[in-house]
Amino acid sequence: MISDPQVLDFITKTETSYPADANGASAADNRRFYDAMCAAFRATRPPGLAVLDRTVGGVPCRVYGETSAVTVVYIHGGGFVVGGLDSHDDVCAEIADATGLQVVSVDYRLAPEHRWPAQIQDVLAVWDALDTPGVVVGDSAGGMLAASLCLARQGGRQPLGQVLIYPGLGGGGNAPSYEQNAEAPLLRRSDLGGYRTALHGEGPITDPLAQPLQATDLSGLAPAFIVTADVDPLRDDGADYARRLTEAGGIAAWRNEAELPHGYLRARRMSDRARRSFLAITAAISRLAATGKAV
Known about the structure:
Layout (H helix, E strand, L loop, with lengths): L4 H13 L9 H15 L9 E6 L2 E6 L6 E5 L13 H11 L2 E5 L11 H12 L4 E6 L1 H12 L8 E5 L10 H5 L8 H12 L23 E8 L3 H13 L4 E10 L10 H20 L4
Parallel strand pairs: 3-4, 3-5, 5-6, 6-7, 7-8
Antiparallel strand pairs: 1-2, 2-4
Helix pairs in contact: 1-2, 4-5
C-alpha cells in the first residue's frame, strides 16, 4: 500500500510515458515507451564530470570520472529487454560524483534479439578486462547480472562487494511478495513472465547464473548490500538472497524500502524516501570500496 504523496506523484509521472501495458508491447514499442520515460526523468550530469563512451572487453560502455583505485561496474535494469547507456546515465553520473570512484556502465546485449547467456557473457567480458578492484552494482535485471557475475567467478576474482537494487534473482514466484504485490504499480507479476520468455524462450531454465537463488552453493561470494522495494513482487528475492548468503558464511545486509515501488531510483529527486535510499546506496558503494564491509 502506498500513501506517500511524493511516491504517488512519481508513479503518475512514470505511467504518463510508460503505461502499465508497455511490457506487453513489442520489444521495439516497449523500448520507445521506456526511452521516453527515462528522458522525462533524466537529470543533468554533475558539472565537471568527465564522461567517455568506450569499448571495454569488446563491449560498449560509458565511463564516468577519472581512473580510481576501485572501479564501480554498473549494470542497468530493464527486464533484459529495455534500457542502455542513456537510461541510467544520470544515476551512474551521480554515483561517480558521490563516491569519487570511476563508474563503468555496461551496455550488454538485450533480449529477445540476444537470448541468455549473451547478457552475462558481456558483463563478464567487461569485468575480466578491468585491471583494478571493483564493486559491482545493478538494479532490477542488472541486480541479477551483478549477482551472477559474483557466482560465475566463485573461487576466482571476486568484486570487493555487490550492491543489488530491487533485484530479480530467480525466486520462482513462491515467496509471499509475488502474491502480495502481484498487481503492484510499475512492475506486476505478469510482467515478469513476459521478460522471462523474452530472455529464455519457453523452455526450462537450467543455468544457475540465470537464477542465483537456485544455486546450491553461495559460499565465497562478495559481501552484499541488497536493497528492495516493499511494494514490488521481487521484494522477497532480495531478502531470501541475503539470508542464503549469510547461511553460506558470507556477509549480506538487506534494506527494505517501505512504500516504494520497483524502479524508484528515478524518484530520488522527487521523493524523500527514494532520496534517502539512494544516499544509502552510494554510501554502501563507498564503504565496500574502502573496507569491503556491507554495513
